[in-house]
């Protein structure tokens, strides 16, 4: 049985699939100027949404560490946090 995916994960994956499709369409060079511009705008919007979503998830990620026999949750610190 496949584990159920949370709605946010599916939405992210669908958005990523859509962004990849936009890039593929742009790379073919078969679209006219107006269609390409619209695709580009969609891609920029999708990229921004996906980046925001990743940032939200990053802040929610916690690392469990064992401390004195008890598990303690601490926020994950990324390489770019300046800490």
Structure overview:
Strand 1 (62-67) and strand 2 form a beta hairpin. The mean pLDDT is 80. This protein is of the alpha+beta class and 83 residues long. It is rod-shaped. It is 60% helix and 14% strand. Strands 1-2 form a two-stranded antiparallel sheet. It contains 2 helices and 2 strands; from the N terminus they run ααββ.
Distance between the termini: 41 Å
User: Which strands sit side by side, in order, in the main sheet?
Assistant: 1-2
Order of helices and strands: HHEE
Q: State the low-pLDDT regions, or none.
A: none
Largest sheet, described in full? 2 strands, antiparallel
Mean pLDDT: 80
Total beta-strand segments: 2
Supply the helix-strand structural class: alpha+beta
Q: How large, in whole angstroms, is the Cα Rg?
A: 19 Å
Shape by Cα distribution: rod-shaped
Report the β-strand fraction as a percent range.
Answer: 5-15%
Helices, by number, come to 2
Helix content: 55-70%
Question: How do the strands and helices of this protein lay out in sequence?
Answer:
Elements: H1 7-28, H2 33-60, E1 62-67, E2 70-75
Antiparallel strand pairs: 1-2
Helix pairs in contact: 1-2
In brief:
The protein has 83 residues and is an alpha+beta fold. The protein is built from 2 helices and 2 strands; from the N terminus they run ααββ. The chain is 60% helix and 14% strand.
Annotation keywords:
single chain; 83 residues; alpha+beta; two-stranded antiparallel sheet; 2 helices; rod-shaped
